[in-house]
Design a protein that fits this description.
Blueprint: E1 9-12, E2 15-18, H1 20-23, H2 25-33, H3 36-41, H4 50-59, H5 65-68, H6 73-82, E3 88-93, H7 95-107, E4 113-115, H8 120-128, E5 134-139, H9 146-158, H10 164-168, E6 170-174, H11 179-187, E7 190-193, H12 207-215, H13 220-231, H14 241-254, E8 259-264, H15 272-283, E9 289-292, E10 306-312, E11 327-330, H16 333-351, E12 377-379, E13 382-385, H17 394-403, E14 411-416, H18 428-436, E15 440-444, E16 457-463, H19 478-495, E17 500-505, H20 508-520
Parallel strand pairs: 3-4, 3-5, 5-6, 6-7, 8-9, 8-10, 10-11, 14-15, 14-16, 16-17
Antiparallel strand pairs: 1-2, 2-11, 12-13, 13-17
C-alpha cells in the first residue's frame, strides 16, 4: 500500500478518500477560502462564472435528487409487482443515460441487458432471449434518436406490434412534456418522469438510473439511503470526501497531471470507473483526461503526468485498499455516485470550466455512410484506411499514429463493434499505452464522449456484419445505422483536422487477434 494512503483521510457515511491532501493541499485551501463547499451544497449557480450560471441554475438538481427520487419508490414497487413475470429487463437509450443503471446492476449482481448500440449482434441476441418475458425500458430526455427508435421497432415486431399486451412490455423514462412522453401515451406504455433538473451523466440517482435497476431487482432504496447519509458532509471544510477528491483532481491537473487513471482495487464496484470516467470527461471540458484502466499495474495507469485513483467498495473507516495509488476512494455505491458528482463539480470550479455545457452534437447516425473509397492496403482480416501521408500498411500506419502523439495529446481508440462478442479488442488499450508511453483511451462507438476531442489522435475500428437485422418500417438496417454513426464521427474529426486511422475488420475474431498481435509488436 502506498505510504500516502496510510495518512489522514476524509471520511463520511462510510465513504473514505485517502491521499487527496498529499496531491495538492493548496487547491483545497483555495476552495475553502472561496467558500466553495457551502456554496455548492447550497446550489449556488455562480460558482463556475457568469457564462455558466444559466445552465448551472437548471442543472444542480443532482445535489438533492436522492431526496426527490424517493417519490418514485411506491410506483417502482407497484410496477415491479405488476411486471413480475417479465424477468428479462432490457434498457435502450443514449449511453449518458444508461451507463449508471448498468453499473448499478453490475455492481449489485442483478441481470440487466443494455442496448446502447446499433450493432446488430447484441440486438439480435437480446430479442432472441425470452421476448415474451421481456420488459423494454426506453430512456431519453426528449425524443428517441434513430438507434433507440430502431430498438423499439424491432421489439414491437417481436411482440406482434400492437395491442395492450405489447404496451405492457414497454416502460418509458423521460422528461415531463417530452416528445417521447407523447409517443409513450400513444403506445399505452407506462411513463415514469425523469428529474428535469438533472441531465447527462449526473442522472445516476434519478429515474434514469433507478427504474431499470429496480426492475432488474436492485435494492435502489439502499442507494438513496447511502447518498442521503453522505449529503450532510458536503457543506463542510473537513471530513468532506467530495471536496477532498475534487481538490485533488483539480490540483493535479493544474500541475501537469491531467490524466486520471481510474483503477479497480479488487474490493468490488469494478464497473464504477467507467461511469466516473464519463462524468469527468463531461464535467471538465477536456482539462482532465480520464482513463478507465484495467488494473493498478496496467500500462498507462501510473507514471509522470498521471494521477492514479483507486475505486472500491466499503472497507471501513480509516482503512486504505492494498493498491499502489495516489488517491483511493472506498465506500458504498450510492455514496460513490454523489461523491464523484460533487468532486467533478468542485474540480470544474477550480479549473474554471463550465461542467454543464452541452456537448457538441456528434455527426452520428443521421446521415448515410459516404463511400470511403478503396482501402490503402488489405492484410489478412484487416482493411487499412490510412490518411494522406501515412504508411499504407497496418504496422506502419499504427506506428505513424502512435509516433505522432504530441506531449499534450492522447490516443483515443473507438470500436464500432459488439462490446460483448468482440470484447477481446479491449486488450488493445494497454498494448498501445505501452507502445506510446502516452495516455490511451478505449471506448465503444455507442459510448464515445470525446470521440470528437480536438486534442487527440484517433483510431476507429469498424467490423463486417455477416447477419444484419432490418429495422421494421424503416428503409435501413441496424448495420447501416452503425456504419452511419462511424461515418459521422469520421466527418466530425475531419472537420477538426484530427489525425484518424480507420481499420475495418472483414472477419471480426480473426481481425481482432491480428490487430492485437500487430499492436503488441508496435514500437515508437
Amino acid at each position: 500500500m502506498s505510504d500516502l494512503l496510510a495518512g489522514p483521510a476524509d471520511i463520511a457515511a462510510g465513504l473514505a478518500v485517502h491521499g487527496a491532501d498529499a496531491v495538492d493541499r493548496s487547491a483545497r485551501a483555495a476552495l475553502v477560502a472561496h467558500d466553495v463547499p457551502a456554496r455548492l451544497a447550497a446550489q449556488d449557480p455562480a460558482l463556475w462564472g457568469p457564462g455558466a450560471e444559466a445552465a448551472a441554475r437548471a442543472r444542480l438538481g443532482w445535489l438533492d435528487t436522492h431526496c426527490r427520487s424517493r417519490d418514485l419508490l411506491p410506483q417502482l414497487a407497484e410496477l415491479t409487482a405488476e411486471l413480475g413475470d417479465l424477468d428479462h429487463v432490457v434498457l435502450a437509450g443514449d449511453a449518458d443515460l444508461t451507463l449508471a443503471a448498468e453499473v448499478i446492476a453490475g455492481c449489485l449482481d442483478r441481470p440487466l441487458t443494455v442496448l446502447d448500440t446499433a450493432d446488430p449482434g447484441p440486438v439480435r441476441a437480446a430479442v432472441a432471449d425470452r421476448p415474451a418475458r421481456t420488459v423494454l425500458v426506453l430512456a431519453a430526455r426528449h425524443g428517441l434518436d434513430r438507434t433507440a427508435d430502431a430498438h423499439l421497432r424491432v421489439w414491437r415486431a417481436a411482440w406482434d406490434d400492437s395491442g395492450p399486451e405489447a404496451a405492457r412490455h414497454v416502460v418509458v423514462v423521460t422528461a415531463p412534456g417530452s416528445p417521447l412522453e407523447a409517443l409513450a401515451d400513444e403506445l399505452g406504455a407506462v411513463v415514469i418522469p425523469a428529474d428535469p433538473e438533472v441531465a447527462g451523466p449526473w442522472t445516476a440517482l434519478t429515474a434514469f438510473g433507478l427504474v431499470p435497476a429496480a426492475l432488474a431487482g436492485a435494492p435502489v432504496i439502499e442507494l438513496l439511503d447511502e447518498a442521503a447519509a453522505l449529503a450532510g458532509a458536503l457543506d463542510r471544510d473537513r471530513d468532506n470526501p467530495g471536496l477532498a477528491l475534487g481538490a485533488a483532481l483539480a490540483g493535479a491537473a493544474e500541475h501537469g497531471r491531467a490524466t486520471v487513471a481510474l483503477v479497480p482495487d479488487g474490493t468490488g464496484l469494478d464497473g464504477l470507473r467507467h461511469w466516473a470516467a464519463a462524468l469527468l470527461a463531461a464535467a471538465t471540458g477536456g482539462r482532465v483526461l480520464p482513463v478507465a484502466a484495467e488494473s493498478p499495474d496496467a500500462p498507462g495507469a501510473t507514471g509522470a503526468g498521471v494521477l492514479t485513483v483507486g475505486l472500491g467498495g466499503a472497507l471501513g473507516a480509516g482503512v486504505g485498499p492494498g493498491v499502489d495509488a495516489d488517491v483511493a476512494v472506498n465506500g458504498p455505491l450510492g455514496a460513490h455516485f454523489l461523491t464523484w458528482e460533487y468532486a467533478a463539480a468542485v474540480a470544474a470550479a477550480a479549473l474554471r470550466v463550465d461542467p454543464f455545457a452541452e456537448p457538441a452534437d456528434p455527426a452520428g447516425d443521421d446521415e448515410p455512410a459516404p463511400d470511403a473509397g478503396p482501402p490503402s492496403s488489405v492484410e489478412g482480416a484487416i482493411e487499412v484506411y490510412a490518411p494522406t501521408g501515412a504508411p499504407a500498411d497496418l504496422a506502419g500506419a499504427l506506428r505513424w499514429l502512435c509516433a505522432g502523439l504530441g506531449e499534450d495529446e492522447h490516443l483515443a481508440v473507438t470500436a464500432y463493434l459488439d462490446r460483448r462478442a468482440d470484447a477481446a479488442v479491449t486488450g488493445l488499450r494497454p498494448l498501445l499505452a505501452r507502445a506510446t508511453g502516452r495516455p490511451v483511451t478505449l471506448g465503444w462507438g455507442s459510448r464515445r464522449p470525446g470521440v470528437t476531442d480536438a486534442r487527440g489522435r484517433h483510431l476507429l475500428i469498424t467490423g463486417a456484419v455477416t447477419d444484419d437485422l432490418p429495422v421494421p418500417g424503416r428503409p435501413y438496417t441496424f448495420a447501416e445505422l452503425q456504419a452511419a454513426r462511424a461515418a459521422g464521427d469520421r466527418r466530425a474529426l475531419a472537420g477538426r483536422e484530427r489525425p484518424v486511422l480507420r481499420l475495418h475488420l472483414t472477419e471480426r475474431a480473426a481481425g481482432v487477434a491480428q490487430l492485437l498481435d500487430t499492436a503488441g509488436r508496435t514500437r515508437t
